[in-house]
Specification:
Layout lengths: L2 E2 H8 L2 E3 L5 E2 L1 E2 L9 E4 L16 E4 L1 H4 L5 E4 L3 H11 L15 E2 L4 E2 L4 E2 L4 E2 L4 E2 L4 E2 L4 E2 L4 E2 L4 E2 L4 E2 L3 E3 L4 E2 L4 E4 L4 E4 L2 E4 L6 E3 L4 E2 L4 E3 L6 E3 L4 E2 L4 E2 L4 E2 L4 E2 L4 E2 L4 E2 L4 E2 L4 E2 L4 E2 L3 E3 L4 E2 L7 E3 L8 H12 L1 H20 L1
Parallel strand pairs: 4-5, 5-6, 6-7, 8-11, 9-12, 10-13, 11-14, 12-15, 13-16, 14-17, 15-18, 16-19, 17-20, 18-23, 19-24, 20-25, 23-26, 24-27, 25-28, 26-29, 27-30, 28-31, 29-32, 30-33, 31-34, 32-35, 33-36, 34-37, 36-38
Antiparallel strand pairs: 1-3, 2-7, 21-22
């Protein structure tokens, strides 16, 4: 991959200060970049590296450009510039090219123009793959599932029946979409399975991480709105609804029938109770346990921060005594009130 500095500036919408014909081949950090590489400065704590950088060019703000010893790509948000430059210089191969002869494709499956299907993939009856869809090797696409234009599945993704993915989605390896939700009735100690009859509907420009599971609905559908990003190893239970632009970090677990609003940010390893609603614009910090609805936007946290083991053992012992301490405090308050009345 090779682009001129002018072409890169045009792709970023940045102001160029330097040789427009300079060739850029990759992106790197300020301290590691060398000739032919572009870097970026978006965090002031790395500003001290700017004077010594060997990069061919740096993406930065107008404020920092005066101190830059090399060519500059000046823009208001250098981190966005980094993302756009990384896209322009991306050398990641496609999950599949053309249709591999070992792929098993049902006769009535509908394939758009430019569809690619990798080795040993299975495309079942009633599937629709819109233009430019790429299905990686070893994938399973179940009956009556539809993938929107330019959606990509990496290797060994499993899509059950009646799953809908919109356009420009990206699903990483090992993800499972449309598995049965955890629905059972109990008959005198014996578990009776409740067939999960709903589906999964996923919007456009959604990214789903490796080994994440999104369960199908029990009756209605599990729904993920447009522009949602979901990290690796997340569990999204049946009939969950996630609103536009929400981001979820790795290891998050969501119980059934949870509703999450728009533009929420969810830290890793968070756990959500089901059958409740989280409003728009909520930030949940990592390892939070969300047991009640949230009705006001803001930042919410729970959990105990890391301590040296000796201190943590004391904290844990005190936490176990909170109920007793609460009762003793109540008795003391009552005694004080009685004394003041006398």
């Amino acid at each position: 991959m090779k682009v001129t500095l002018q072409a890169l500036a045009d792709a970023l919408g940045a102001e160029l200060k330097g040789d427009p014909g300079l060739h850029i081949t990759r992106i790197n950090t300020l301290d590691k970049a060398g000739p032919g590489e572009v870097s970026f400065l978006s965090d002031s704590k790395y500003r001290h590296l700017l004077a010594e950088t060997k990069a061919a060019a740096v993406i930065l703000t107008a404020e920092d450009s005066a101190a830059c010893p090399v060519a500059c790509l000046v823009m208001a948000d250098p981190y966005l510039g980094f993302a756009l430059a990384a896209q322009r210089l991306d050398t990641t191969p496609a999950p599949a090219v053309d249709i591999h002869p070992s792929a098993v494709i049902a006769e009535d499956a509908v394939l758009g123009e430019g569809v690619a299907i990798g080795a040993n993939a299975v495309i079942e009856s009633g599937v629709v793959l819109d233009d430019g869809v790429i299905v990686g090797p070893g994938c399973f696409v179940g009956k009556h599932t539809r993938l929107g234009a330019r959606t990509r599945l990496w290797a060994n993704v499993t899509l059950y029946h009646n799953v809908v993915l919109g356009s420009d989605c990206l699903v990483q390896s090992g993800a499972v979409i449309g598995a049965d939700g955890f629905g059972y009735a109990n008959n005198k100690g014996e578990w009776v399975k409740i067939p999960q009859l709903g589906g999964v509907v996923i919007g456009n420009r959604v990214e789903i991480g490796a080994c994440t599971t999104i369960d199908r609905g029990a009756l209605g559908d599990t729904r993920i709105a447009d522009n949602v990003i979901i990290d690796n190893q997340c569990q999204i239970a049946h009939n969950v609804e996630i609103g536009y632009g929400t981001a979820m970090a790795g290891g998050t677990v969501m119980a059934g029938s949870l509703k999450v609003g728009k533009y929420c940010i969810i830290g890793g390893a968070s756990v959500f109770n089901g059958h409740m609603e989280i409003c728009d614009g909520v930030t949940i910090t990592g390892m939070a346990m969300v047991m009640r609805p949230i009705t006001e936007p803001g930042i919410y946290s729970s959990g105990i921060p890391l301590q040296p083991n000796k201190e943590w053992r004391k904290t844990a012992a005190r936490v176990m005594r909170i109920d007793d301490m609460h009762k003793r405090l109540g008795r003391l308050e009552k005694q004080l009130n009685n004394s003041s009345e006398e």
